[in-house]
């Protein structure tokens, strides 16, 4: 039997509201009514007991102001002697993380087909309210959330921890992994979420969820890590992989919010619950989230401008240059493979995500100050963000766009290690598709952004140099019906596409 899973708030619910008290569910009304009746019953019972006992004035003992003050002083003395246990690690963790959690809400239009009595059908549009949660990962206001929280939302409204409100703009998204990056409007700096790791989680360790549950902003719940590495099918077209299962209370509106460890560090992004179950919820591991968000930002930057370098994490810290485009801005600035970028303008760089974020606010044509280390020496240079239209000045990029219809970048060492480990292969690498030209050979074969090109014909495309050599091959220049190999979500696929014929004088 196939289990039925759902996103916490895949469909933006019409019942959502930013003021929960304005539209309480019927169940809460019943509870409130029973509670009021219980108070009334208690009062009636007390009155009956009073009458039966016929209490006299002698049974009453006045408490003087002096005796009350003395009692309070005694309580204070006791509290000094006895250390309070109320401020638990959970309290400290929530206090540490809560200021970087934001609540998202907005409207989207959905269309439904309605049938009339005459048998005709028509599209009926209606507005529905939705809600979700996000976490601030950069002090300039960049927030990570689930894609289904902001999908097709006309205006993303945000409530911050202090109760103030603003709006946000969608910057980049990855629907396949259900993640999105939005930017808060307004003056920063904004407090960022403390980051943990998900590669060392233990089943049974305590966790905390914070989110906009049913519109109740900044609701906190606790639980444990119930299981790790869960693969969850949502529907016929979407599934989640390698999730954290938790018993923390997760409800509609928690989507995109943080799952914290007991130190108040984010170790996951809450994404789904098991329909009809209790205390079975799931979160995307934070290591996976940060890798996906980094790729999202790099793709977004690549569409706006070209710097001309590829990099990877460095054990010594910083962002290590791996490859450079010949004649590109980074190469002209003096950078070489092996250099470690440690600062861009005023931003210190220790991870690929920080490097991607550091250039996210840059405009095409802007010069960036780059500080890098080569050996034991530290240098400074300036690189330009060349508008993407100038990408065609690079012969390899121009040919890939013309002949295949793709823009690419190296997939990196982590991809190569994972593929060789899982598939028992000897791939030397691959090229991530960052853009697909409409109407091209790649587009006709449904190649997507995020796919990794492994090879064309019998040749591996493990690097930009490999691709350049392949595209210059006489057989490829004639525009054959070429076999290609790609990886999509760790699954190797192949197909055939008709490559464009290259004019004999087309290359310089």
UniProtKB/TrEMBL annotation:
<dbReference type="InterPro" id="IPR001478">
    <property type="entry name" value="PDZ"/>
</dbReference>
<dbReference type="InterPro" id="IPR009003">
    <property type="entry name" value="Peptidase_S1_PA"/>
</dbReference>
<dbReference type="InterPro" id="IPR036034">
    <property type="entry name" value="PDZ_sf"/>
</dbReference>
<feature type="domain" description="PDZ">
    <location>
        <begin position="404"/>
        <end position="472"/>
    </location>
</feature>
<dbReference type="InterPro" id="IPR001940">
    <property type="entry name" value="Peptidase_S1C"/>
</dbReference>
<feature type="domain" description="PDZ">
    <location>
        <begin position="295"/>
        <end position="350"/>
    </location>
</feature>
<dbReference type="InterPro" id="IPR051201">
    <property type="entry name" value="Chloro_Bact_Ser_Proteases"/>
</dbReference>
<comment type="similarity">
    <text>Belongs to the peptidase S1C family.</text>
</comment>
<keyword id="KW-0378">Hydrolase</keyword>
<dbReference type="InterPro" id="IPR041489">
    <property type="entry name" value="PDZ_6"/>
</dbReference>
<keyword id="KW-0645">Protease</keyword>
<dbReference type="InterPro" id="IPR043504">
    <property type="entry name" value="Peptidase_S1_PA_chymotrypsin"/>
</dbReference>
<dbReference type="Pfam" id="PF13365">
    <property type="entry name" value="Trypsin_2"/>
</dbReference>
<protein>
    <submittedName>
        <fullName>Trypsin-like peptidase domain-containing protein</fullName>
    </submittedName>
</protein>
<dbReference type="Pfam" id="PF17820">
    <property type="entry name" value="PDZ_6"/>
</dbReference>
